[in-house]
Design goal:
Layout (H helix, E strand, L loop, with lengths): L3 H17 L8 H14 L12 H30 L14 H18 L6 E5 L6 H10 L4 E6 L2 H11 L5 H4 E5 L14 E4 L7 H14 L5 E6 L19 E9 L6 E7 L24 E2 L11 E6 L4
Parallel strand pairs: 1-2, 1-4, 2-3, 4-5
Antiparallel strand pairs: 5-7, 6-7, 6-9, 8-9
Length: 318
Amino acid sequence: MVCQEDLLIEKVCDLYEQISSLESLKPCKNVDMLFTELVLTCMPPSPIDVTNLPKNIQEKRSHLIRLCGEAEGYLERHYSSILGSYQNPLQHLHIFPYYSNYLKLGLLEFSILSQHSTHVPNKIAFIGSGPLPLTSIVLASNHLPSTTFHNYDIDPLANSSAMHLVSSDPDLSNRMVFHTNDILDVSNDLKDYEVVYLAALVGMDNIEKNRIIDHLGKHMAPGSLLMLRSAHGARAFLYPVVEPSDLRDFEVISVFHPMDEVINSIVISRKYSMPIRPLDQGLGSMILPNKCSEIQVFNPLMGLNHGNMIEELTINED
């Protein structure tokens, strides 16, 4: 009898073969159909652990994540160009097919942030903002009306497109700053931010992602918050997974796994006040928090219908 996990892997591999054989990943009917089917295949909750898959499946997963990232980049550039043709682009964001997901994700991340921050942040950095910086736009417009957002992207054309989208809005154009940098070349400026967001597709594999996380851990201000996006279960075929153990310079506060159409898991952590040294270097070694909950159903949005997620880890802060 074939198990559900085998059927899932077979389906994902079949879609991978079709997607990897495409001449272009730019938006069109066939590309949109294949990626929609892939997302719908990976969306349902699944106990699969992608780290235990055979090597050949692991290699396909790694390549598939890069293909998803490339396709997502084309999709954002396509819609950023369309939106940029309007006199007031921000009034037409709803034409982006996943805009409602960003609204839900923004509300969720703001609610999580509010639980673990004692005040409204003055400056937030978003790393990997792209040509369609919807997270920053949603947070700045709907949840953090006095916060300045510093958006970092390595691509100058992406930043140019993003700046054009907010230029007609007198408020956001003053509170959205764009920097064209490889984040690994940014050091002192990182100390200015109370919260740093790391986009899911900045660092496409564990080595790249961990190099960036370690860089942030070295240069972010002590006590500042790092919010990053991960993936859980079958959704890890779409995005890289960040484990709590990857955050060596941070105290992991909570890990949230949405189970609806919001695909990304959310990890919130706090930069340690003192450097953390390996166990073999004596005092100053990492002490794991002892107030961890079991995996549980969790609703951070009190009174809203968002109970369809699990909170993997939470630290009860006194």
